[in-house]
Write a structure and sequence with these properties.
Elements: E1 2-4, E2 13-18, H1 23-30, E3 37-40, E4 54-57, E5 64-68, E6 73-77, H2 82-89, E7 94-95, H3 107-113, H4 120-123, E8 130-136, E9 142-145, H5 151-157, E10 166-173, E11 175-176, E12 181-189, H6 192-201, E13 207-212, E14 224-231, E15 250-251, H7 263-277, E16 283-286, H8 287-291, E17 297-298, E18 309-317, H9 321-335, E19 343-347, E20 361-369, H10 374-387, E21 391-392, H11 402-408, H12 412-422, H13 431-435, E22 442-444, E23 450-452, E24 457-461, H14 466-477, E25 481-486, H15 489-503, E26 508-511, H16 520-526, E27 531-534, H17 542-547, H18 549-577, E28 581-585, H19 598-618, E29 624-630, E30 632-633, E31 648-649, H20 651-663, E32 668-671, H21 675-684, H22 687-690
Parallel strand pairs: 2-4, 3-4, 15-17, 24-25, 24-27, 25-26, 27-28, 28-29, 29-32, 30-31
Antiparallel strand pairs: 1-2, 5-6, 6-10, 7-11, 8-9, 8-10, 12-14, 12-16, 13-14, 13-19, 18-20, 18-21, 19-20, 22-23
Helix pairs in contact: 9-10, 14-15, 14-20, 16-18, 18-19
Amino acid sequence: MNTATNWGNYPVVRADWYEGNQPDKIKDWLFAEDDPVIPRGLGRCYGDSSLGERIWSSNALDRILAFDPVTGMVRCEGGVSLDKIITTCLSAGWFIPVTPGTRYVTIGGGIASDIHGKNHHSEGTFSRHVLSLTLLAPDGRIVTCSPSEQPELFHATSGGMGLTGIILQATMQLKKVESAWIKQVNKKAANLEEVMALFDTHIASTYSVAWIDTLASGKNLGRSILMLGEHALASEVTGNPFEIPAKRKITIPPFFPSFLLNRLSVTAFNKWFYFRNANRGEFLTDYDEYFYPLDSLLHWNRIYGKKGFTQYQLVVPIESGKEALTKILDECRSAGYASFLSVLKLFGDQAPGMISFPKKGYTLTLDFPLNKGLLPFLERLDAIVKDYNGRLYLAKDVRMSEQMFFDTYPGAEDYRNFLKQWDPDGRFASLQSRRIGLSKIQTTNHNGSSMEKNTKSVLVIGASSGLGRALAKKYAQEKWEVTLASRDVAALNLLAGEIEKESGKRPAVEAMDVAAMETHRSMASRLAPDTVICCAGYLGNQENAMEDPEEFRKLMDTNFYGPASLFNEWARVFARRKSGCLIGVSSVAGDRGRQSNYAYGSAKAGFTAYLSGLRNRLQPDNVHVMTVIPGFMRTAMTEGLPLPAPLTASPEQAANDIYKAHMRRKNVVYTLWMWKYLMMIIKMIPEPVFKKLKL
C-alpha cells in the first residue's frame, strides 16, 4: 500500500499502486481484485479524481512511439508528459496545440480531463487535436477510437475523468510554430467591466488570460491585467529561435510557513503586480515564462501549508457573466477569502465531450487554503454558479455534491448511462466518481451474470462514543471499509489504531461536529459511503436544560436537529444513487416523555418520527432507513446511573443487534429486544395514571 495525494495535497489516501507498462500485465493486475481501479498520470489534478483504493500509474508508459517533423503528427503512450513532447518536438517547429498552466501533465491525463488553455476561444480543448486513442477497456479488450471511429466512446473518454479505461496510446496533431518565443502585450483593466470589454476587443488574439485582483472592491472590483500572446516568427527573434534561457528552479520547502499567505500579504502582492504589469507594450517572452511561470517553483503547492488547498474553477455564460462574477468576487471579499492565484479566461464553444467542462463563457479560477470555514463558503459560491447556469471543473474539484454535478452538467445522465453499458461491472471508479454519483459499482456472480456489488463501506458518526466504537469494530470485523467521524479526533486515531491491529486495515478518520449543520452538505458531497450510521448523542442534564437555554439547545442540536440535518444531505445523495442505507440511533426515551429526562426524550422522539417519515419517503428510491431504539446501555454517558442488569446491554451486544438488523433490512430494531415489549406496555398506560408515576 502506498500513500497518494494530488496537487491540492488533500485528501491523502492509502492505495494499492501499480506502474506496469505492458498491456497484458496491466490487464492481469486490473482483474486480480474486485476493487475498482482509477488511472493516474502525474497527479496535477487538484482533488480526488485520480484517487481510489487501487491506482494504476502511467509513469512507466512514457514512450514517444512516432513523430513526423513534416506533418507534426505525434503518436505516444498515455504516460508521456507535455514536457517530453515539447523537449522532443519544439526544435522541429511543433508545439502543444492546447496547454494548461503546467507542462507536467500526461497525454492521458490531458485527454481524461479534456484540458484547456489560454486559447480555448480560438482552438478549443485538448481533445479537439487528438486524432485517435487506444484504450484498455473495462472488459480487458484493447480498443481504438477517434472522432470518426466509435465516436461515442471517444467523446465519453475526452473529459470522462478516466472512467472509460486506461489510455495506452494517443495520436495528436501538434501546432506549427517558428520559434519558442511569445509576443506578449499587457492591458490593464480598472474593473470587471473593462476586462470583459478587453476580451471582446482582442477576440482575434490567439492567447488571452487575465490576472484578477479578487480583493479589490467598489469601482475597482475585478481589476485585472489582460495578457495577450502570439507565437513570434523566426524573423522576430534574435539568434536561434528555438533556444530559450535556462531557468533557475526554486524549491518550496515542506515546512514553508503558510501563515505568510494571508489577506494582508495577498493585498500587498496584488497591488504590486497590478502596477508593475499595467499597460506594457509588446515584448518578447519565452514560452516557458508565458505558459508555465509556476513550473520554476518546484512544489509550489506547499505554500498553502500541510492541510492542503483547493482550486475552485467555474464557468458562467457570457450573457450573465458580469453579474455572476460580480457576486462571486463580492462574496470572496466580504468573506475575507483572499485567493493568491486568480485567473480569468474567455471560453469558446462547448466541446463535444459528454462531460467536458468548457462552454461559451467566462471561467474564473481561485485558490484557497483549506480551513474550517472554507467548505460552507464554497457552498455559497456553488449556489451562485448554479443560479447563473454555470458549472465547476472536475479536474480541480474535491467537494462538489452529486446534486450540483447533475444539475449543472447537461451530459451527466447520458454519461452515467454510457458507463453502465460500457463498464457494467464497475471496473473503473474514483473517489470523485462515487461522490458525484457517476460510479455504480457492480460485480459478477458465480454464473457470470451482472449483479450489484456491495462495496461494504460505512461511515460511523459519533464513533468516539461507546456504541460508536463497538459499531466501528463490528463492521470492520465483518470486512467493511470503515470511516470514523467525531469531534474527538485524538480518540478516533486511537480507535483506528486498535481496529488496524484487529482487522489489518486502518479506518479513515474525519473530524466533524454533528451540531455544526453548516458543514453537513459539504461532508455528504465529499464522502461516498454506502451506509451512514449516526450514533452521536448527548444525555445532558434535565434540570440544567430547564434553566439554561444553551443547554436545552445543545440537547436539541445534538440529538435531533444535527442528526436530521446530516441525514437530509445523505438522503439526497442516496436517492439519486438509488441505493444506500441510513441508520439512526434514537432511544426508548423518545417513546414516551418522562419527567426525569423529557428534554432529551423529546429530541429523540423527534428523531424517531423523522426517521419514520424519511423511510417512507426513500422507499421508492431503494434506500434503506433503519431506526435503532436502545434501552439502557453501559457507556460513559450512563456511567454512575443505577441501571438494572437484565435490561442493560453492553455496547458490543447492541452493535451485534444493529448489524444483524441491518443485514436483514429491518425498519426498527430495539436493543435489547425486550425493550420493544416493555415500551409497548409503558405506552399503553393511561395518561391520568402515567402522569402520577415518578419515572
